[in-house]
């Protein structure tokens, strides 16, 4: 069986990602980003080996490859317990589904929102406390 060639998000083959090319200035950090296709292939391999949860993680990661690092970091920060509201997490899930076509990740965020709410890790709502729009979280 022939092994499939692995490509980065910019289309560079795995063989092209080497120190000589880096030193010659032929590669950028973008060349080292994994592609959604490679992540989906990893998901298939994990699932075939019986690692269903790992496969689900790879599939969600594949959905996120088209989103900027800054945006992913902002999403990550929203998912940290105590940093957001239930409504903000639901809005994030909607955005993931609508704007980024990431239904698997959206489902995970919705599940997290419900668990966080049940365990008291998120606030039910936010109220404004002054004219500078600083907010105070209340339950």
Report how far the terminal alpha carbons are from each other: 58 Å
Topology pattern, helix = H, strand = E: HHHHHHEE
Helix content: 40-55%
What is Rg? 19 Å
Uncertain regions spanning at least 5 consecutive residues:
133-139
Q: Outline the biggest β-sheet.
A: 2 strands, antiparallel
How many β strands by DSSP? 2
Q: What is the subunit arrangement here?
A: single chain
Number of helices: 6
Which shape, going by the Cα principal axes?
Answer: elongated
Average pLDDT metric = 88
Beta-strand percent range:
5-15%
Instruction: Determine the structural class based on helices, strands and strand pairing.
Output: mainly alpha
Biggest sheet strand order reads: 1-2
Task: Describe the structure in your own words.
- With 139 residues, the chain is mainly alpha-helical.
- Helix content is 52%, strand content 6%.
- The protein contains 6 helices and 2 strands.
- The chain has helices spanning 19-23, 36-48, 52-64, 69-79, 86-98, 103-119, and strands at residues 125-128, 135-138.
- A two-stranded antiparallel ribbon has the order 1-2.
- Strand 1 (125-128) and strand 2 (135-138) form a beta hairpin.
- Helix 2 (36-48) packs antiparallel against helix 3 (52-64) and helix 5 runs antiparallel to helix 6 (103-119).
- It is elongated.
- It starts with 18 loop residues before the first helix and ends with a strand.
């Amino acid at each position: 069986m022939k092994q499939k060639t692995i490509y980065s998000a910019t289309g560079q083959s795995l063989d092209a990602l080497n120190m000589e090319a880096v030193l010659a200035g032929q590669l950028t950090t973008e060349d080292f980003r994994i592609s959604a296709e490679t992540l989906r292939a990893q998901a298939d391999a994990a699932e075939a080996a019986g690692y269903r949860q790992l496969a689900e993680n790879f599939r969600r990661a594949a959905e996120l490859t088209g989103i900027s690092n800054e945006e992913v970091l902002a999403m990550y920060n929203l998912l940290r317990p105590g940093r957001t509201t239930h409504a903000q997490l639901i809005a994030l899930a909607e955005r993931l589904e609508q704007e980024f076509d990431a239904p698997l990740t959206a489902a995970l965020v919705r599940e997290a929102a419900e668990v966080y709410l049940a365990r008291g890790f998120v606030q039910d709502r936010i109220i404004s406390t002054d004219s500078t729009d600083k907010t105070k979280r209340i339950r």
